[in-house]
């Protein structure tokens, strides 16, 4: 139960931070993208699980013709397959999540 309250507190902080960023005009997307092209591209929302194992070759073959959104630990499976997601989404903001995400700092993965 104590751990559950920790995640509740984390969500309260996240909402407060998001509210402040919206008020300050902090951009959510830091890189400029050609939104005209993005409107015509398929989007792969990738979560970790058995279906990812079955789809990894398809995702690798089409990674340059789609926008790839990696959710949670799926980023490590994509990294092992040499697939670079365009967007990464995580809900948890714990130290273990931050430690896990050091993979994103690899020279070949930026």
TrEMBL record:
Pfam families per UniProt: MptE-like
PANTHER family assigned to the protein according to its UniProt record, in alphabetical order: 6-HYDROXYMETHYLPTERIN DIPHOSPHOKINASE MPTE-LIKE DOMAIN-CONTAINING PROTEIN, MOTILITY ACCESSORY FACTOR MAF
Keywords: Kinase, Transferase
Molecular function as annotated in GO: kinase activity
Domain 6-hydroxymethylpterin diphosphokinase MptE-like: 36-103
Record-given protein name: Putative phosphomethylpyrimidine kinase
InterPro entries (UniProt xref): MptE-like (IPR002826)
């Amino acid at each position: 139960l104590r751990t559950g309250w920790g995640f509740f507190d984390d969500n309260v902080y996240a909402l407060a931070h998001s509210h402040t960023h919206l008020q300050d005009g902090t951009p959510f997307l830091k890189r400029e993208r050609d939104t005209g092209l993005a409107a015509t591209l398929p989007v792969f929302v990738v979560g970790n699980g058995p279906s990812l194992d079955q789809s990894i070759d398809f995702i690798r073959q089409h990674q340059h013709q789609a926008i790839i959104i990696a959710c949670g630990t799926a980023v490590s499976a994509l990294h092992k397959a040499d697939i670079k997601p365009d967007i990464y989404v995580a809900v948890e903001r714990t130290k273990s999540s931050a430690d896990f995400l050091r993979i994103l700092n690899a020279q070949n993965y930026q």
